What does this fold into?
Amino acid sequence: MTAFLAVVTRELRLSLRHSADTLAAVLFFLVVAALFPLAIGPAPETLGRVAPGIVWVCALLSALLPLDRLFGADFEDGSLDQLLLCGLPAAAVALAKALAHWLVTGIPLLITAAPLAIMLRLPDPALPWLLAGLLPGTMLLSLLGTASAAVVVGARRGSVLLPLLVLPLVTPVLIFGVAAADAASAGLSPRPDLLLLTALVAAALPLCPMAAGAGLRAAGE
Amino acid sequence: MDASSVVAPPPSGRNPGRSLHRFANPGRFLRLSGVVLPWLAATGAALTALGLIWGLFYAPADWQQGDAVRIMYVHVPAAWLASAGYLGLAICSVLSLVWRHPLADLAAVEIGPVGAAFTALCLLTGSIWGKPMWGAWWVWDARLTSVLVLFFLYLGHIALVRAFDNPERGYRSGAILALIGVVNLPIIKFSVDWWNTLHQPDTITLTGAPTMYVGMLWPLLFSALGYTLVFAAIVAARTRAAVMERRIRTLLMMRAEETAA
It folds into this structure.
């Protein structure tokens, strides 16, 4: 447990020292989402209708940005081997990385999503449910993203490859997340979609670190 | 089981892994597949031709869809093979991760492009059928979307296994990705079904009687069997080529080392 916390603390400290990199994902989220009103037009009905989709797709893309460096930097300077030798199982190292990714990218995205959704004229009743969907949704992005990032460690053009691997895998997250917000704006219950998202978190929580651990061990061989 | 038997398969005995490892020998695979491959390819091609000619020229037209229904004999087997191919990819990945089966590694690499091609064929024929039937080349229907995601999963696997300088790393990573994909596929399928449905439900299921005229069912089954054999033949031929390529590379390396020394 101490080792696990040490790995998490190390990740958090590293991202604090490289705060510009950390902020870049959130800024990317804001900038890309701000392009949509310019492209679609400022009509509130249209914008409000597509706002959950815009927020979700932009969140997916922004969460991808730091994944490339998640293991890449450690792999290049050799500290990945040290992490694998530190006594923790590889899956626990991967879980620590996923937790750090969620704390550093997921939570800021979640916080930024609220003002962004308001600017995109999302109907007021849907806002809490959009955020409630993003909470398990960002966790899933971190878990699936960590698993994919572990698999591409050491690949040529890994950063180009990552979106191709992650985006098809996260389609269910996107569907349920947007469905929850859409249901809320239509006056229906968003509960089933949120329950499904939470169920996906429960399934991904053990499986994704396991897969990521296998990928890291293969990289360390 | 002691540690040594885990690391290396024992030379003899009733070890369940033995039957598997017998086919792990690339030389034996080359001999066996050399005998089987021509038959496999010929039977597959003959059955596909039979099914397609029967389906395209002699089977009855549908009372509702007319002659457009005939694309089914090309489309439906391709769709079956697209999913069966991914399952095969996942099975090879398990063999490669658990038993480090060298042929499974190569087979997984070679299944990827073939499966992707069948998936593309399925999407393409579906779209050609959709234009007269639904009035659009592409509709964001649940099944179309899940096959599209399957296509992307194939492409990701193809790109990943070839992205490493060390082929062993590519095999491992590709295997893990294929397993993540195969766990995720039912979830994707379910979520997309929930999201939108326009495609007709399954006509042929394993549990119920098919709701299809027998004159249409037979050609479909022939072409499905033919497609399966052709798929297997292409994968076997590609795996043979990969084994030989590896041998050639080893021979060239050896010669280069000799000349250097």
User: Anything to note?
Assistant: Chain B touches chain A through 29 residues (CB under 8 Å). Confidence is low (pLDDT under 50) at residues 1-17 of chain B. The helical segments of chain B are 3-7, 16-22, 26-58, 72-99, 102-134, 142-161, 167-195, 214-260.
